[in-house]
Design brief:
- It is built from 2 helices and 21 strands.
- By secondary structure, the protein is mainly β.
- It folds into 3 domains: about 10-50, Seminal Fluid Protein  PDC-109 (Domain B) (Ribbon); about 95-140, no CATH class; about 145-305, Jelly Rolls (Sandwich), CATH 2.60.120.
- The strands form 5 sheets. Strands 11, 12, 14, 17, 18, 19 and 21 form a 7-stranded antiparallel sheet that branches.
- The radius of gyration is 35 Å and the shape is elongated.
């Protein structure tokens, strides 16, 4: 049979001034909590009730098997750390304040950085390394921003005399085109042309600004779903602003689009509001209605960051 052991019990009015022996435990029957005495302190040391324990909110920091500091508010010293799910997926989120800030994972040796992965000073993904923690080299920078297939067609019989903005586009966030930031934009077309096709102009646009346009020239005649392409190199030459300067040149163009497609007839630089979100798009313009058998389809759009 078990033995029942009872501790000494007193009301709070008595215990508030009572000095118990070192190690003596008393029960406060007013609040039903335990007091631990040290032989010197009146009232001893009351223990908190479980109901008084609250979830930690806005604590100064947390150290697990180590101490936190002013920078590392959460510090963990462990062979491993586990973030588990509660029945579905799970995410570890690193949120930065602005595009020029950093949100990354830093890998260190002796508290000196050796590799870093994340958004390092801009909104592109970087993987970079360092031999000494001071000088860094980008090994991988996010290159391809967008690859899209299956766009719409612009028929000369219905779309002549005005720009046709094709449905394949690439959205650039505000501030993405920093000073020196360069993109390569490659557009693949399928062209069908009659015996005497009207002139055609292929254009690259950034929002409302036209960055590149060749002089009107007739594409090769009598083609049926012929695959052709054109690539542009564009580069911002100023920091993001409401009127940032953009340089744009034709990198390559298929001869079937006409000789004028291989050069940009616009004066450079072109001004664009790179401090706002913009849509990069390709347009085509037929100079006349044609015979009805002239059609150009944007079949693929690829946008790559070059630095």
């Amino acid at each position: 049979m078990s033995v029942q052991v009872k501790s000494r019990r007193e009301a709070a009015s008595f215990l508030s001034t009572y000095v118990g022996a070192a190690g003596e435990l008393l029960v406060d029957v007013t609040s039903w909590r335990v007091q631990v005495h040290d032989g010197a302190t009146p009232g001893g040391h009351p223990l908190a009730l479980l109901s008084e324990a609250t979830s930690p909110q806005n604590v100064a920091g947390l150290g697990v098997n180590t101490s936190f500091d002013a920078v590392n508010k959460l510090s963990v010293k462990s062979a491993a750390a586990l973030f588990d799910n509660v029945g579905a997926g799970t995410q570890l989120k690193l949120n930065k304040n602005a595009a020029g800030d950093t949100a990354s994972l830093l890998y260190q040796t002796g508290y000196s950085g050796r590799a870093e992965a994340g958004l390092c000073g801009d909104d592109r993904f970087h993987l970079k390394t360092s031999a000494d923690g001071a000088a860094w080299v980008d090994g991988v920078v996010q290159r391809t921003l967008s690859v899209q297939n299956g766009g719409d067609a612009n028929a000369a019989s219905s779309g002549s005399g005005a720009d046709h903005d094709h449905t394949l586009t690439c959205s650039l966030p505000a501030g993405f085109l920093t000073n020196g930031g360069a993109l390569r934009v490659s557009a693949a077309f399928r062209l069908t042309s009659g015996a005497s096709p009207p002139t055609l102009v292929c254009k690259l646009k950034l929002g409302a600004a036209t960055l590149a346009a060749g002089a009107p020239a007739a594409p090769v005649a009598s083609m049926t779903n012929q695959q052709l392409s054109i690539s542009w190199i564009m580069q911002a030459t100023a920091a993001p602003s409401a009127a940032s300067a953009i340089e744009c040149a034709v990198a390559a163009a298929s001869s079937g689009l006409g000789a004028a497609a291989s050069q940009n007839a616009l004066a450079m630089p072109v001004s664009a509001a790179t401090n706002a979100a913009l849509v990069l798009k390709v347009s085509t313009l037929w100079g006349a209605a044609g015979s009805g058998s002239d059609q150009i389809r944007l079949s693929q759009l690829v946008v790559e960051a070059l630095n």
